[in-house]
Batch of 2 targets.
Target 1
Amino acid sequence: MKKVDVVLGLQWGDEGKGKVVDVLTPNYKAIARFQGGPNAGHSLHFDGDSFVLHTVPSGIFRDGSINIIGNGVVIYPVILAEEIAQIEAKGVDVASRMLISKRAHLILPTHRALDAASEAAKGKTKIGSTLKGIGPAYMDKTGRNGLRVGDILQPDFAERYETLKAKHTEMLAQYTYQYDISAYEKEWFRGIEVMRRFRFVDSEQLVNDYLKEDVSILAEGAQGSLLDIDFGTYPFVTSSNTLCAGVCTGLGVAPTRIGEVFGIFKAYCTRVGSGPFPTELFDSTGECLRSVGNEFGATTGRPRRCGWLDLVALKYAVMMNGVTALIMMKSDVLNDFSTIKVAVGYEVGGKQLDYFPYECSDEVVPIYKEFEGWNCDICNVRNYDEFPQQFKDYVAFIEAETGVPVKIISVGPDRDETIVR
Ligand code: GDP
Ligand code: IMO
Ligand code: MG
């Protein structure tokens, strides 16, 4: 019996999950998203083309792949329909290779209005949400009010939509926020019609049948471990379990059926939105990381906050996910830095810590170890042996600290700019 392998982000998202899933897909028959929704933006580059996927699994461009939107995902039909149209424009028959769980929840236009109203009301303490309605949709899921994909097939779907919308309208009346969803509503129902062309499935059954039949499955995480609702930098997090545990609840897979866990991290660190970020740089080095790394959000276009690699946080994420293999992304972005720093500990209130604490606030002062940079272009390296010694020292240190091998290294956005050890 097969196990589900997992790709997930170990930082605050945007580690390069889309690229890695696209690279790994030839080894798998099925690719499944298990949590999150259109707050995700997963970039793929190949054959001179580029795409940003929000809801559709990143295996979609590979012939013969099956792409599953799992029960743990929340779907905004408008964004999904737009993505489908873009992929179909490239000649891919999306309906023949994508399945949607009947248990996945729908994001309503009023969820988006609630997200915006809540953020506006928070003022300076706002989370920096992508405003895709993620939080309100998951609130309705846990509050047992949500609309699910399977409901689309019920005769009273429109009525149920109206009931939930009425509840949201009452909630919105508590805010001063001005909104008009009439235009959004029309496209929302058009999106629902697009979704009807797809197979709605009991994906938990399908996934487990696949495992029994030895069909290989790769679960594609969204966001990152430090945005996890339970273990991230709460309240500056997203509303789902982004950790490996989310695969179990978001696909219906038993913990004993989890196989390889690929943990992805950037050779440095970024965050978009508010919240603590101990190694954030506010100087020209941070700006340099942003411009060289082109660190602007794939979903919102917002500039990403940039800083050095944080090994305290990375070790925490490795522990919480049971990572079996590390994947280091955007190594090329550090090409021209004469010194590279890595946080190996924290100082909080005069005390030194070597783990990621509950009190991870702006008060945390990182303790750095310095490395000599490699000061050369590594974009054309395709064999590990060809990397400069300084680069190998950097990788070896990360492996020694985390206790996990770095099995894949990315030196550029393209599929081909990847070194598998
Ligand atoms: P995801 O959300 O984890 O899929 O990551 P995003 O797509 O939001 O952000 C990663 C960005 O880095 C995208 O623009 C990728 O094209 C780009 N990227 C991925 N790997 C590399 C790499 O190794 N080097 C460089 N320079 N860019 C990369
Ligand atoms: P991918 O999958 C980076 C961040 C937002 C905000 C917080 C809550 O592309 O890595 P939400 O919209 O979920 O209510 O926002 O989480 N965030 C992400 N940051 N990458 C993402 O996805 C993100 N999805 C949400 O910026 O701080
Ligand atoms: Mg992204």
Target 2
Amino acid sequence: MSAIRANDPATTIRALTDRIESSLIEIRRDLHAHPELGFQEVRTAGVVARELQRLGIPHETGIGKTGVVGLIEGGRPGPVLAIRADMDALPIQEESGLPFASTLPGQMHACGHDIHTTTLLGVAAVLREMAPQLAGTVKLVFQPAEEGLGGMQAMIDDGVMDDPKIDLALGFHNHPDMPVGRFAYVRGPTLAASDRFDIVVRGKSGHAAYPHTTIDPVVAAAMLVTQLQTVVTREVPPTQPAVVTVGAIQGGTTYNIIPDTCLIKGTVRTLHAQARDIAEAAIRRLAEGMLHGMRVQCDVSYRRGTPSLVNDSRVLDPTVAAVRAQFGDVITEGEASLGGEDFALMADRVPGFQLRVGSSQPGREDRLHNSAYQPDERCIGFGVQALSRAAVEMLGGAV
Ligand code: NI
């Protein structure tokens, strides 16, 4: 690829991306046809390792079970920038009807992580060519198991943050609510902390016709579910978004028995640490209060999951500037969402930012995690250019 020797990074990055775009789309279709669930990304990691090998990029496999980490050393010393892509698929039966649809029943790349993996391979190819201009190191992080299974934590446990130590972290996600070619950013908190709780409501079983001889956990659980609605409306400050959702309530077996227990399962989503603390304390207090009001003992298990993803201006500003420098005025400020994302664990340790990459095809209204999701594959090329340019900006390579 040594023929491309333009002086300005926009032209160089565009030309390098144009050269590889069709082969990237081939890789993406291959990954799409062979989706793998979290921590099972053996074939996918093999494709990643094969491509890094072909590009002459040193890499390690087996980081966080099925993760892969590649390193591109710049021509001069400088900070270490991690660029992270997730690789796992979802347990969804694909209904897209595409010729390269999933070949595996009940498994599908419905969140576009095939797009992410391919985009980062494209970034690897472009930055490999531009490495002599970079002052610093690019760490390519191909992460397994983003969909709730703890892939980022597994990579962190395996030392992904060190050797060389990551200074800045850049993530990205495809967004079908934006047309391909557009980008978005959110300042500050952008995705929610995601916690889970189980509450076992313990009463005393007995005959349904003699409720006065029992302590009914079903009625108490119903009251508690209603009371939990006040956590968001009456306790968390209204300026701090929060969600408390009870997703499951299970108790009893038949018509004429009042059971001993009733189980409540739910999730709490918050963008701010204060709201998170308030919500957890309120749920514990309301559950405890059921003992006095309804004579039931509530055992609460509250598990904190990934923290909220807070975008840092030290990565956000240069990336937004890079997108504008590469494409013009195609990036706008978006709204935070109460979804979760374990890139937050990396962004909790070093300044981080997640770029939103528009992926909707003209005329379609797709959604993530939908069985017919069809991102516009041109978002791969746009992502490659944007992320490569961001790396060039942050590693002082725009010379
Ligand atoms: Ni995703």
